[in-house]
Amino acid sequence: MSALPSSAERPQAQARGRSHADATQYAKFSEKDELLKVLIVFDHPRRDSFCGAVLDQLISGLSSAGHHVELADLRAEGFDPRLTPGDEPDWKDAHQVYSDAVLAEQARMSRSDALAFVFPVWWWSFPATTKGWIDRVWNHGWAYGARKLPHRKALLLGTAGASAEHYARRGADEAMRVQIARGMMEYCGIPETQLHLLFGALGQGSVRQQHLATARSLGESFFVE
Q1: In this structure, is residue 3 part of a structural domain?
Q2: For residue 105, what are the domain limits?
Q3: Does residue 195 register a pLDDT over 70?
Q4: Is residue 64 in a domain?
Q5: Do the domain assignments include residue 182?
């Protein structure tokens, strides 16, 4: 657990207090709204990868359905996934003020009604940058604990090199659903989550084209209320 700020650190924390309050004013929306503001979190070292092509198709589908899209390209933006002492949760302080970098990401999340993640599956999970983004930004007192996330839906598209049979034989697909859909999204208050693993993504031709079509179709249909 992180210690409370020292007397030398408190003025800076107090100065950030207004930003913290602003960042935690979650987006308000009516249940009658049909179109959503979707924040896409993208994590791949190359924007011109197949994973990047999946992202493009998802954005195309979302845009054609009329949704507003904001992109968080974690690698391109240079997001630092390392959790520093200043962002370590203080379980005794439900109103802890986090770093400016975390407050900026929380403010970006607050502008959205729904979330989407596009990522390559590495070791049966997110890449480290996405995991670090969740570690730092989805913090105690903001995403869980006294407060939960207000987002209606989360869509996860993971490009997977191996086959569906390879994953199923090891229980890896179900493990990812438990870990990510239930252990992260549902735990933080998101009521509806879908994880789509795009198997055989290292191949060429028809398999990839099917995955790209799936990404676009989900962009068009999943977020419609």
Answers
A1: no
A2: 35-221
A3: yes
A4: yes
A5: yes
Task: Read off the pLDDT of residues 48-105 as tens digits, 9 standing for 90 and up.
Answer: 999 999 999 999 999 999 999 999 999 999 999 999 998 998 888 777 889 999 999 9
Domain count, the chain: 1
pTM score, whole prediction: 0.83
* 158: nearest Cα among 113, 124, 192, 129: 124
CB 225 within 8 A of CB 67: no
Q: Quick check: 85 and 59 in contact, CB under 8 A? A: no
Residues 165-174: pLDDT tens digits? Answer: 999 999 999 9
CB within 8 Å of 85: residues ≥ 6 apart: 2
Sorted by sequence, the CB contacts under 8 Å of residue 72 that are 6+ apart come out as 39, 40, 41, 42, 79, 105, 108, 133
pLDDT tens per residue across span 112-155: 999 999 999 999 999 999 999 999 999 998 999 888 999 999 99
Residue 150 lies in a domain: yes
CATH code of 185's domain: 3.40.50.360
Q: Are 78 and 47 in contact (CB under 8 A)?
A: no
| Cβ contact 224:34 at 8 Å | yes
